[in-house]
Amino acid sequence: MEHIVESIRFPCPNAIHGCTARTTYYDQHFHCQTCPHRPCHCPSETCGFVGSTAALLDHFNEAHGWPCTTKVKAATMNYKDDDDYEFKLQLHDGFNFLLADCATADSKQGTIHGGLYLFLLNAVRQQR
C-alpha cells in the first residue's frame, strides 16, 4: 500500500505559471512553499501586480522606480563608541521582502543622502 501511495504524483498548483513538477502528496506543501514558479504579489498597497519573480523585479523598476537587488550586502554598523550595532532577521519559507532605509551623512557638506532599497529573499528550509 505504501508503494502505491508513493507512486501517485500530483501536478504543482503553479503549473499554470510554468511549473512542471509532480510531487507526492506529502511533499506537495513543501514544494508549493519553495516553487520558483509561485506567483509573487507586488507589496505596494495600491498595486495589484501578480507575476513571476523575474517579472516582479522588472515591475519594481518599471512601474515604481524602486531599486532592487538579488544580492545580499552586509556590513557591520557602528553605533556610539565603536559598539557594534546588530539586528536579527527572521524569514519564513518562500519569498520574503526586506525594505532597508539607508541614510548616510556627509559631514563636509552637511547633507544627508538616503535611499530605500527593497530586497526579495527566497528562503528554503533544508531537509535532513
Automatic annotation (TrEMBL):
It comes from the Eukaryota. GO terms for biological process: protein ubiquitination. Keywords: Metal-binding, Zinc, Zinc-finger. Gene3D superfamilies: Zinc/RING finger domain, C3HC4 (zinc finger). PROSITE patterns: ZF_SIAH (PS51081). GO terms for cellular component: cytoplasm. One of its GO terms (molecular function) is zinc ion binding. This is SIAH-type domain-containing protein.
